[in-house]
Request: fold
Amino acid sequence: MLQATSIYTQGNGEKWDAKNMLNIMTEISKTSLKVLGSEIFNQITESK
Reply:
């Protein structure tokens, strides 16, 4: 979540194109869901 706020502006202070921003946010969301899914799977299948 902290990464998302840092991408609203480019390094030069300009705003991102809306389509490029959507692509970036979608990629961040997919990565976050993969990590969360992996962690949940590990917890469910962990031997106790």
In short: Residues 18-45 form the longest helix (28 residues). The mean pLDDT is 81. DSSP finds two helices and no strands in the chain. Helices lie at 2-6, 18-45.
